[in-house]
Specification:
This protein is mainly beta and 425 residues long. It is built from no helices and 38 strands. It has a four-stranded antiparallel beta sheet with strand order 3-30-29-28, with no helix packed on it. A four-stranded antiparallel beta sheet has the order 4-5-6-7, with no helix packed on it. A four-stranded antiparallel beta sheet has the order 8-9-10-11, with no helix packed on it. The protein is elongated.
Length: 425
């Protein structure tokens, strides 16, 4: 399931055996409106980090990606503008990472140290809080006031520890056997925990626990930005469970072999799942539950989507790398067409989502005759050789290193008389 250096969870005679250096990840759900694009065209960049990369999280502004390296006792901080990596030493066996809503601190569960490390993102300085035996996953509440940690605890008692970020006081709530992942709903009203055989839903007001049955060996849990659904990877079932949070009704979706990590895109339109046995990432369309796949590195585990939806980041335990998946840009926006004498001047604004790679050019093409004009960085150009009185539908596309965007289309009718510009809808 993982590299030979990474002592994780092993299956033997259909029994889940938890090794001493147990490392499970959690993934943060990001707020926002961006979407990771459908992977019909994608590019995958490999970034080397330390050994045993497992969990991954991204800062709210998208400037940094944080990766726990279980075998190195470090956290890698990746500059998303340059892909440069900074290594930060934490406690032993870092297994999970989460970023505070304001981006000022990063929280790391250290499975073999029984601690949670708090990293000051301005200085990269580290402090530690003791939480109990075997913390495997960490999540931050939406208001930043509480840290939730899935803890194996002594004598096999399974709890979720709640840390007050102001006082650093720790309280505990009993959940199911061997909790592995924890996530907080966007409104902070509930906490979701995967256990060895089920999922626990905690009411944060009363601390009451509801048990929900999903697939075999549920691993990692994520929640949609609107809180309407919770997604759970079932490692031995090869499925993902979709839980309707209003009813707790469960739908099963088949993905790749040994699904591990899961995250929901910021706009909720897609869910991304790492498949350790397949070496792939599955993208689930949340409107249809349709599944497509992208090949990444060996034994992919953690996954997160950038706040603007332009990149998907995957940790590959088997190769000590992080895969950055990028996409074609979104279409140019605010397209207008000003008709002229046998020509038309087309203008637009650059897309807000460049697909994770810089725009290399724009093309405007008329539907009748194929006349076109191109630019590299300019956001307007003039198409010549048109026929006055004929209506043309002009498509404008943006291009980056990955591919070409979908078009934005505007209609224009050339004329020798001055006319006000036409706008796209």
């Amino acid at each position: 399931m993982t590299s030979s250096q990474f002592a994780g969870i092993r299956f033997f005679r259909n029994t889940l055996v938890l090794a001493t250096s147990f490392a499970l990840l959690s993934v943060m759900t990001l707020s926002g409106l961006a979407s990771a694009i459908t992977p019909s065209t994608t590019a995958v960049t490999s970034i080397t980090v330390d050994t045993g990369p497992s969990s991954v999280a991204v800062s709210p502004d998208g400037s940094s990606v944080w990766v726990t390296n279980f075998n190195s006792d470090t956290v890698s901080r990746i500059n998303t503008a340059t892909n440069a990596v900074t290594s930060i030493t934490v406690d032993t066996g870092p297994s999970s990472v989460a970023v505070s809503p304001d981006g000022s601190s990063v929280w790391v569960a250290n499975f073999n140290s029984d601690t949670v490390s708090r990293i000051n993102t301005a200085t990269n300085t580290v402090t530690s809080i003791t939480v109990g035996n075997g913390p495997s996953s960490v999540a931050v509440s939406p208001d930043g006031l509480s840290i939730w940690v899935a803890v194996r605890n002594q004598n096999g008692v399974a709890v979720v520890s709640r840390i007050n970020t102001t006082t650093e006081a720790v309280t505990s709530i009993t959940v199911g056997f061997y909790p592995s992942s924890v996530v907080v709903s966007p409104d902070g009203s509930s906490v979701w925990v995967t256990n060895l055989i089920n999922v626990s839903r905690i009411d944060t007001t009363t601390d009451a626990v509801t048990v929900i049955t999903v697939g075999t060996y549920p691993f990692i849990v994520a929640v949609s930005p609107d809180g309407s659904s919770v997604w759970v990877t079932n490692y031995q079932s090869g499925t993902v469970s979709r839980i309707d949070t209003a009813t707790n009704v469960v739908t099963s979706i088949t993905v790749g072999s040994s699904p591990y990590g899961v995250v929901v895109s910021p706009d909720g339109s897609s869910v991304w799942v790492t498949n350790q046995g397949s070496g792939t990432v599955s993208r689930i369309d949340t409107a249809t539950n349709a599944v497509t796949s992208i090949a990444v590195g060996a034994s992919p585990s953690g996954v997160v989507v950038s706040p603007d939806g332009s990149s998907v980041w995957v940790t590959n335990q088997g190769s000590g790398t992080v895969s950055r998946i990028t996409f074609p840009p979104q279409p140019p926006a605010n397209v207008t067409a000003t008709p002229g004498n046998a020509q038309a001047t087309i203008s637009w604004t650059a897309p807000t989502n460049t697909g994770g790679s810089p725009i290399t050019g724009y093309t405007a093409t008329a539907s009748v005759g194929g006349q076109s004009c191109t630019t590299t960085t300019a956001t307007s150009c003039t198409i010549s050789g048109l026929t006055n009185g004929t209506t043309y539908y002009v498509s404008v596309t943006a291009t980056n290193a990955v591919g070409v965007s979908d078009p934005s289309v505007v209609a224009v009718t050339p004329t020798s008389d001055p006319v006000a510009p036409a706008f796209t809808g």
